[in-house]
């Protein structure tokens, strides 16, 4: 994860997550957010904020990266970053943006979504 500063969860939720969610889901009144159930995502302050804003948090195990599509995105990103000899913070930022926009695009994300039923069936088969 790349952060150029430290922020409080409330600032991040109010200025980044909530506006993004409202923009993406402006045609529906119900929004569900999936996270990896880490303690920072389950803090009382975060839960209270989400409840106040009408956002439902989908509870799932953090030990199921195969069912969390963003893990595929981070894996692809790390594979692409390893290929580059980056010598500055700006080169890193530029490369991340390039990979995100050129490779982690709508087509890639749709492919991940299309394979989700197969992953769920495989997970159920293994874990019962």
From TrEMBL:
Protein name: Tc1-like transposase DDE domain-containing protein
Domain Tc1-like transposase DDE positions: 22-92
A GO molecular-function annotation: nucleic acid binding
Pfam families xref list: DDE_3
